[in-house]
Amino acid sequence: MFKTQTFAHQTLALKRRQTDIRPAIAPVKVRRGTPDYQRISLALFLAGFATFSLLYTVQPLLPLFAQHFHVTPAASSLALSLSTGALACAIMLAAMLSETAGRRGLMFISMSAAAIMNIVAGLAPNWTTLLIARALEGFVLGGVPAVAMAYLAEEIDGGSLGLAMGRYVGGTAFGGMMGRVGAGLFAEAFGWRAALCIMGALGVAAAIAFVLLLPASRYFDRKRGFDLRFHVRAWGGHLTDRGLPLLFAIGFLVMGAFVTVYNYAGFRLMAAPYHFSQTVIGLIFTVYVFGIVASSTAGSAADKLGRGRVLPMGLGTALIGALLTLSAAVPVIILGIILLTVGFFISHAVASGWVGRLAAGSKGHASSLYLLAYYLGSSVAGTAGGWFWSHGGWPGVISFAGVCLVLALFCGLGVGRISRPQRAEPR
């Protein structure tokens, strides 16, 4: 009897020790080459595609809006600027919401709602309704970019993060191209209303495929309730970090330079001595294909060589490309735009992935700050570039963009020096 009780106690103690040990065994993060890695990469590629195709699908349609609704060209641009402005505002709110609502569900709802709003815009009976639909579309899209970056940083192994982030950014490049080129082609064939509805339907399909592919979060630490002080402390902690603000500045500067060149290249090429048509200028957006390849290549190179080496290479490539556009020869101008595009996507892929690596915690908040700076660079620097175009022509535009890229290069070198002694960076 005594021996039986002793054996039972020993067995119970052993089970308790095993129970105590089991929670300490953390799940292994997803690594490159595994089925989950491929699913995550494809799902986030679709998220990037949906976000940017929906966001920029109206850009080639602005002249059609001006003609159909009898508004000025400046007023027609509100169909795009209201969306990007609402997106920038929504990113911070989405970061807070994702800490309690979860990652995958929030991204799916955001993608689906934005796609539906794009269809609503296509069916809008008047200009005001279209603008409201586009503003709401941009606002709900805020739930994708910051959350996507945070998901990758939490779930992907550090040595494989660069390639995954590069594929996501490649999806944004593909979406940006399809949103501009595809919508223009659909509009020419079926009209602008059908073009918006078709792009919206593609967005719905991408959202469904996304949620079916993306594995549930394993490393996400859901917060209970809403604590504003927690979010303020999280943002404040990232802003006082030595390296992260430099990455935020890079996002602002490189996006500002990129958008400035793209905004005013059309004005230059439509004027003498080129006199390019709107269709030919629209085809320039097909150079985004080079951005898709560059994003994935940069992510893989960052994993192998280190982000501190690859980021300056991307920024230098963008600077060389911008300077080449000063030539009067069309082939050289196109080559310059290609190099600028490649350098931009390399820089963005590496910098955005680096944010997730440097953020010690609350990665969604860090991603939201980076994307806030990124979209502010588009709106603020892109608009400021118009002053340089008006007063200095194309040399003025490139001077402004060049200064932005040089400053971004200094920031990149600075964050490389800071991160090396403090944090181990993957090879």
Automatic annotation (TrEMBL):
InterPro entries, sorted: MFS, MFS_dom, MFS_trans_sf
CDD domains in the cross-refs: MFS_NepI_like
Domain Major facilitator superfamily (MFS) profile: 36-419
PROSITE patterns linked: MFS
Subcellular location, record wording: Cell membrane
A cellular-component GO term for this protein: plasma membrane
Highest taxon above the source species: Bacteria
Source species of the chain: Acidisoma cellulosilyticum
Keyword Transmembrane helix on entry: yes
Stated family: Belongs to the major facilitator superfamily.
UniProt protein name: MFS transporter
Key words, A-Z: Cell membrane, Membrane, Transmembrane, Transmembrane helix, Transport
MF terms in GO: transmembrane transporter activity
Transmembrane region(s): 40-58, 78-98, 105-125, 131-153, 165-186, 192-214, 243-264, 276-298, 310-327, 333-356, 368-390, 396-418
